[in-house]
Protein backbone atom coordinates (compact mmCIF):
# COMPACT_ATOMS: atom_id res chain seq x y z
CA UNK A 1 0.00 0.00 0.00
CA UNK A 2 1.35 3.41 -1.01
CA UNK A 3 2.23 5.88 1.71
CA UNK A 4 0.66 9.33 1.77
CA UNK A 5 3.96 10.78 0.54
CA UNK A 6 4.06 8.36 -2.40
CA UNK A 7 0.49 9.28 -3.30
CA UNK A 8 1.34 12.98 -3.24
CA UNK A 9 4.38 12.38 -5.40
CA UNK A 10 2.40 10.36 -7.94
CA UNK A 11 -0.02 13.27 -8.29
CA UNK A 12 2.58 16.03 -8.39
CA UNK A 13 4.58 14.23 -11.10
CA UNK A 14 1.81 15.24 -13.49
CA UNK A 15 2.26 18.94 -12.71
CA UNK A 16 5.76 19.76 -11.37
CA UNK A 17 9.27 19.10 -12.74
CA UNK A 18 10.16 15.49 -11.74
CA UNK A 19 13.45 16.51 -10.11
CA UNK A 20 11.62 18.78 -7.64
CA UNK A 21 8.60 16.57 -6.88
CA UNK A 22 10.16 15.13 -3.67
CA UNK A 23 11.03 18.61 -2.39
CA UNK A 24 7.60 20.05 -3.18
CA UNK A 25 5.88 17.00 -1.66
CA UNK A 26 7.81 17.39 1.58
CA UNK A 27 7.05 21.13 1.66
CA UNK A 28 3.32 20.50 1.35
CA UNK A 29 3.13 17.61 3.81
CA UNK A 30 5.22 19.35 6.46
CA UNK A 31 3.12 22.53 6.09
CA UNK A 32 -0.07 20.81 7.22
CA UNK A 33 -2.13 22.50 4.53
CA UNK A 34 -4.96 21.51 2.21
CA UNK A 35 -3.29 21.66 -1.19
CA UNK A 36 -5.69 21.73 -4.13
CA UNK A 37 -4.92 21.68 -7.84
CA UNK A 38 -7.75 23.52 -9.59
CA UNK A 39 -8.78 24.40 -13.17
CA UNK A 40 -7.00 27.39 -14.68
CA UNK A 41 -8.15 30.86 -13.64
CA UNK A 42 -7.54 34.05 -15.62
CA UNK A 43 -7.25 36.27 -12.56
CA UNK A 44 -4.65 34.32 -10.56
CA UNK A 45 -2.20 31.43 -10.71
CA UNK A 46 -2.69 30.37 -7.09
CA UNK A 47 -3.90 31.58 -3.73
CA UNK A 48 -3.68 31.04 0.03
CA UNK A 49 -6.61 31.46 2.37
CA UNK A 50 -7.59 30.58 5.90
CA UNK A 51 -10.27 31.35 8.45
CA UNK A 52 -11.09 30.16 11.98
CA UNK A 53 -13.70 27.69 10.69
CA UNK A 54 -11.16 25.78 8.60
CA UNK A 55 -9.26 22.91 10.19
CA UNK A 56 -6.35 23.61 7.85
CA UNK A 57 -5.36 26.55 5.65
CA UNK A 58 -6.01 26.05 1.93
CA UNK A 59 -3.62 26.58 -0.95
CA UNK A 60 -4.89 26.31 -4.52
CA UNK A 61 -2.72 26.27 -7.64
CA UNK A 62 -3.89 26.25 -11.24
CA UNK A 63 -3.45 22.87 -12.88
CA UNK A 64 -2.87 24.26 -16.38
CA UNK A 65 0.50 25.86 -15.58
CA UNK A 66 3.71 24.56 -17.08
CA UNK A 67 5.81 22.52 -14.60
CA UNK A 68 8.23 25.30 -13.58
CA UNK A 69 5.51 27.91 -13.17
CA UNK A 70 3.50 25.39 -11.13
CA UNK A 71 6.51 24.78 -8.87
CA UNK A 72 7.28 28.45 -8.29
CA UNK A 73 3.62 29.35 -7.78
CA UNK A 74 3.28 26.57 -5.19
CA UNK A 75 6.31 27.84 -3.28
CA UNK A 76 4.96 31.39 -3.53
CA UNK A 77 1.74 30.35 -1.80
CA UNK A 78 3.56 28.23 0.79
CA UNK A 79 5.56 31.34 1.66
CA UNK A 80 2.25 33.13 2.33
CA UNK A 81 1.37 30.32 4.74
CA UNK A 82 4.78 30.62 6.45
CA UNK A 83 4.31 34.36 6.82
CA UNK A 84 0.78 34.04 8.18
CA UNK A 85 1.81 31.53 10.80
CA UNK A 86 4.63 33.75 11.99
CA UNK A 87 3.01 37.19 11.78
CA UNK A 88 -0.73 36.69 11.21
CA UNK A 89 -2.36 39.32 9.01
CA UNK A 90 -0.35 42.14 10.57
CA UNK A 91 2.20 42.49 7.76
CA UNK A 92 1.91 43.46 4.06
CA UNK A 93 0.96 40.58 1.76
CA UNK A 94 4.21 40.83 -0.22
CA UNK A 95 6.39 42.72 2.23
CA UNK A 96 9.80 41.91 3.61
CA UNK A 97 8.42 39.09 5.78
CA UNK A 98 6.92 37.27 2.79
CA UNK A 99 10.00 37.89 0.65
CA UNK A 100 12.18 36.34 3.36
CA UNK A 101 9.91 33.28 3.54
CA UNK A 102 9.83 32.93 -0.24
CA UNK A 103 13.62 33.13 -0.46
CA UNK A 104 13.88 30.29 2.03
CA UNK A 105 11.53 28.19 -0.10
CA UNK A 106 13.47 28.99 -3.30
CA UNK A 107 16.95 28.29 -1.93
CA UNK A 108 16.86 24.48 -2.46
CA UNK A 109 16.03 25.10 -6.13
CA UNK A 110 19.01 27.41 -6.54
CA UNK A 111 21.29 25.00 -4.68
CA UNK A 112 20.35 22.15 -7.00
CA UNK A 113 21.77 21.36 -10.43
CA UNK A 114 18.36 20.49 -11.84
CA UNK A 115 17.06 23.87 -12.98
CA UNK A 116 17.52 24.77 -16.66
CA UNK A 117 20.48 27.14 -16.85
CA UNK A 118 18.52 30.12 -18.19
CA UNK A 119 15.88 29.75 -15.48
CA UNK A 120 18.52 29.35 -12.77
CA UNK A 121 20.24 32.57 -13.85
CA UNK A 122 17.04 34.62 -13.87
CA UNK A 123 15.71 33.10 -10.66
CA UNK A 124 19.01 33.80 -8.93
CA UNK A 125 18.76 37.47 -9.90
CA UNK A 126 15.13 37.56 -8.79
CA UNK A 127 16.14 36.02 -5.47
CA UNK A 128 17.80 39.28 -4.46
CA UNK A 129 15.04 41.60 -5.72
CA UNK A 130 11.86 39.59 -5.37
CA UNK A 131 8.67 41.04 -6.82
CA UNK A 132 5.17 40.20 -5.60
CA UNK A 133 4.76 37.47 -8.19
CA UNK A 134 6.48 35.84 -11.12
CA UNK A 135 4.18 37.76 -13.47
CA UNK A 136 5.39 41.14 -12.16
CA UNK A 137 9.01 40.13 -12.74
CA UNK A 138 9.06 40.50 -16.53
CA UNK A 139 12.37 38.72 -17.09
CA UNK A 140 11.37 35.73 -14.95
CA UNK A 141 7.92 35.58 -16.52
CA UNK A 142 9.45 35.70 -20.00
CA UNK A 143 11.66 32.69 -19.20
CA UNK A 144 8.80 30.78 -17.59
CA UNK A 145 6.68 31.27 -20.71
CA UNK A 146 9.31 29.43 -22.77
CA UNK A 147 8.33 26.22 -20.96
CA UNK A 148 4.69 26.49 -22.09
CA UNK A 149 3.81 23.71 -24.52
CA UNK A 150 1.66 25.92 -26.71
CA UNK A 151 3.21 28.69 -28.77
CA UNK A 152 2.21 32.01 -27.21
CA UNK A 153 2.32 35.33 -29.03
CA UNK A 154 2.94 38.13 -26.56
CA UNK A 155 2.05 41.79 -26.89
CA UNK A 156 5.70 42.86 -26.75
CA UNK A 157 6.41 40.88 -29.95
CA UNK A 158 4.07 43.05 -32.02
CA UNK A 159 5.16 46.31 -33.67
CA UNK A 160 3.70 49.63 -32.58
CA UNK A 161 0.21 50.34 -33.96
CA UNK A 162 -0.44 46.64 -34.56
CA UNK A 163 -4.00 45.43 -34.04
CA UNK A 164 -4.64 42.52 -31.70
CA UNK A 165 -7.37 40.62 -29.87
CA UNK A 166 -7.48 40.17 -26.09
CA UNK A 167 -10.48 38.89 -24.11
CA UNK A 168 -12.63 39.20 -27.25
CA UNK A 169 -11.81 42.90 -27.57
CA UNK A 170 -9.79 44.54 -30.33
CA UNK A 171 -6.92 46.89 -29.50
CA UNK A 172 -4.18 48.96 -31.12
CA UNK A 173 -0.75 48.72 -29.51
CA UNK A 174 0.76 52.01 -28.32
CA UNK A 175 3.75 53.23 -26.29
CA UNK A 176 5.55 51.22 -23.60
CA UNK A 177 5.18 52.39 -20.00
CA UNK A 178 7.63 50.37 -17.90
CA UNK A 179 6.20 46.82 -18.17
CA UNK A 180 2.89 47.69 -19.88
CA UNK A 181 1.78 49.17 -23.16
CA UNK A 182 -0.79 51.93 -23.64
CA UNK A 183 -3.36 50.28 -25.90
CA UNK A 184 -6.50 51.72 -27.42
CA UNK A 185 -9.64 49.61 -27.54
CA UNK A 186 -10.91 50.05 -31.10
CA UNK A 187 -14.65 50.08 -30.39
CA UNK A 188 -14.69 52.44 -27.39
CA UNK A 189 -11.45 54.40 -27.95
CA UNK A 190 -10.64 53.82 -24.26
CA UNK A 191 -6.99 53.52 -23.23
CA UNK A 192 -5.82 50.45 -21.32
CA UNK A 193 -2.47 49.50 -19.80
CA UNK A 194 -1.74 45.93 -20.93
CA UNK A 195 1.19 43.85 -19.73
CA UNK A 196 4.00 43.35 -22.24
CA UNK A 197 3.80 39.57 -21.83
CA UNK A 198 0.02 39.29 -22.24
CA UNK A 199 -0.89 36.45 -24.58
CA UNK A 200 -2.71 37.98 -27.54
CA UNK A 201 -4.01 37.13 -31.01
CA UNK A 202 -2.64 39.37 -33.78
CA UNK A 203 -5.15 40.92 -36.18
CA UNK A 204 -4.11 41.78 -39.69
CA UNK A 205 -5.69 45.14 -40.40
CA UNK A 206 -5.82 46.53 -43.91
What would you say this structure looks like, in words?
By secondary structure, this protein is of the alpha+beta class. It has two domains: 4-145; 155-203, SH3 type barrels. Helix content is 37%, strand content 20%. The protein has six helices and eight strands. It has helices spanning 4-12, 21-31, 67-87, 96-111, 117-127, 138-145; strands at residues 34-38, 46-49, 58-62, 163-166, 169-177, 180-185, 191-195, 201-203. The strands form two sheets. The chain has a five-stranded antiparallel beta sheet with strand order 7-6-5-4-8, with no helix packed on it. Helix 3 crosses helix 4 (96-111), helix 4 (96-111) runs antiparallel to helix 5 (117-127) and helix 5 (117-127) runs antiparallel to helix 6. The protein is globular, with a radius of gyration of 19 Å.
CA radius of gyration? 19 Å
Structural class: alpha+beta
Strand count, sense and closure of the main sheet?
Answer: 5 strands, antiparallel
Order of helices and strands: HHEEEHHHHEEEEE
Task: State the share of residues found in helices, binned by percent.
Answer: 25-40%
Count up the domains.
2
How would you describe the shape? globular
Unreliable residue stretches? none
Total E-strand runs? 8
Give the distance, in angstroms, between the N- and C-terminal Cα atoms.
64 Å
Name the strands of the widest sheet in spatial order. 7-6-5-4-8
Fraction of residues in β-strands = 15-25%
Total number of helical segments?
Answer: 6
Q: Quote the average pLDDT.
A: 89
Amino acid sequence: MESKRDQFMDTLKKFAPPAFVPYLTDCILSAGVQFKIVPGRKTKLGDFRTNPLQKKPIITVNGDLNPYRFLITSLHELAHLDTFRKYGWNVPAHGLEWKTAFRQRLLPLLDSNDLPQELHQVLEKSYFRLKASSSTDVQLSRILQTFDQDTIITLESLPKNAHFLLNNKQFIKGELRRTRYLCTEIDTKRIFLIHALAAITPLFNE
